[in-house]
Amino acid sequence: MTSPVLVVRLPRGPEGQSRGFDPTSARYHALAPSTIRASNNCSSVCLAEEQRSRSLLRERFLRSLITMTGKPVTFTMYEQVIVTAAFTASDIDILNFQVTALQTPLGIQKEALLRCTDIIACTFDLEYTPTIC
């Protein structure tokens, strides 16, 4: 027996052809800003410094993802659920982490995707060396 799949359709856009909101409307900008706004009332020097800081933080984060690859990582999730898994990869938008041997309170999952929006913190040992049997 097949079960029906629900499809959510967005309302027609203002021009009648597309679906969704008018990207020039105030509502669209309020609900889905396209970029993170820089600090208000800053000079060009202040904005350049902020951009440099953001660039540095992003580089550090990406380097930490590279360092985590193949190592056991402990993830603290919402509701204080703590899981451990070997980090494998991240998608390009860093919205999901692919992990292997996910140890949860309910058991071990061979492969899994963790949504980054569900993760509060992650920790891993920099000195970890895998044992070869």
Walkthrough of the structure:
The chain is an alpha+beta fold. The chain has two helices and five strands, in the order ααβββββ. The chain has helices spanning 26-31, 44-68; strands at 72-77, 82-90, 96-104, 107-115, 119-124. A five-stranded antiparallel beta sheet has the order 4-3-2-1-5, with no helix packed on it. The radius of gyration is 21 Å and the shape is extended. The chain starts with 25 loop residues before the first helix and ends in a 9-residue tail after the last strand. 7% of the residues are buried.
Oligomer classification: single chain
Distance between the termini: 47 Å
The gross shape turns out to be extended
Largest sheet: 5 strands, antiparallel
Q: Care to give the gist of this entry?
A:
The protein has 133 residues and is an alpha+beta fold. 23% of the residues lie in helices and 29% in strands.
Secondary-structure blueprint of this entry?
Elements: H1 26-31, H2 44-68, E1 72-77, E2 82-90, E3 96-104, E4 107-115, E5 119-124
Antiparallel strand pairs: 1-2, 1-5, 2-3, 3-4
Key terms:
5-stranded antiparallel sheet, alpha+beta, 23% helix, 5 strands, 133 residues, 29% strand, single chain
